[in-house]
Amino acid sequence: MPNRQKRVLFSCAGLVGLSCALMAAVAAGLPFWVRGSVLCRTGAELVNATGPELEKFVGELSFGLFHGRRVKQCGLGGRPARFSFFPELLSAIPVGLHVTIIFFCGVVVLFSSVASGFFFFNAFGRPYETLQGPMGLYLWSAICCESPNTPPRHLETLSLSSRRRAAASVLQTKLDGFI
Question: Which residues form a coiled coil (predicted)?
Answer without folding.
Answer: none
